[in-house]
Amino acid sequence: MSGSFEIYLAWSDRTLVVGPDQSALQVLLDAGVPIEPGCLSGACGMCATDFVEGDVIHKDGCLSPFDRESMFCPCVSRAHTRIVLAY
Questions:
Q1: Which of these, 68, 41, 34, lies nearest to 54 by C-alpha position?
Q2: pLDDT tens, 34-47?
């Protein structure tokens, strides 16, 4: 995994930090964001989450190129800087 990055929850005005050894999914679940975990390997798309801004490093195998413009799978995906979610 790459280094740390931030997830900004716009509606609740909270910033979460995802460490190099953490998944974005676990950080979001720990913060109370309602996401279904699914397979945890980026294959099923159950945890696919809309984002409104960010430079996502997609590591899933389920989202189409079109879907990747506005969604990411937090179980495996990372970001270069930060991801903004409408939560």
A1: 68
A2: 999 999 999 999 99
